[in-house]
Design goal:
122 residues, 2 domains, 0% strand, globular
Length: 122
C-alpha cells in the first residue's frame, strides 16, 4: 500500500523516541520486508541506553523470535553475543525451532565454537 512504509517508519521512530523499545520492536517485526528488519535497525537498538531492564537489543530479538524467523542479518547479529557467552544451546534450540536463517556466514561464525553444530547449519 502506498505510504505504508512511511507510516511504519514514523510509528517506529515515535516509539523509539518515547523509550517504548518493545513497541518499536513490534513495529519493526510487523513492517513489510526489510524496511525495518535490517542492520540499521539492529544498530539503533544496540546503541540505545539500557534502562534497568533487559538490553534494548534483547527486547528487539525477543519480539522477533516470538512470532517469526530471523533473516540472515538478524541471525548473525543474535548469534555473535550468544556464542561469546557460550550459550550454544540457545542456538541449537533456535535451529530446531527454525527461527534462524541458515547461511554459510552463520556456519562460519559457529564453527570455531562447535564444529558439529556448524555442520548442521551448512
Amino acid at each position: 500500500m502506498p505510504g505504508a512504509d512511511d507510516l511504519f517508519m514514523m510509528m517506529f521512530n515515535q516509539k523509539l523516541a518515547a523509550g517504548d523499545y518493545g513497541g518499536a520492536a513490534q513495529v519493526a517485526r510487523d513492517a513489510p520486508g526489510t524496511l525495518l528488519r535490517n542492520q540499521e535497525t539492529i544498530n539503533k537498538f544496540k546503541n540505545l541506553p539500557q534502562t534497568g531492564g533487559p538490553a534494548p537489543i534483547l527486547i528487539y530479538f525477543n519480539a522477533l523470535l516470538q512470532t517469526t524467523k530471523l533473516n540472515a542479518v538478524e541471525s548473525i547479529e543474535l548469534a555473535r553475543p550468544v556464542i561469546q557467552q557460550n550459550k550454544l544451546n540457545l542456538i541449537e534450540n533456535w535451529i530446531k525451532e527454525q527461527k534462524l536463517t541458515m547461511t554459510d556466514e552463520l556456519g562460519d561464525l559457529i564453527r570455531a565454537a562447535n564444529p558439529q553444530l556448524a555442520l548442521n547449519i551448512y
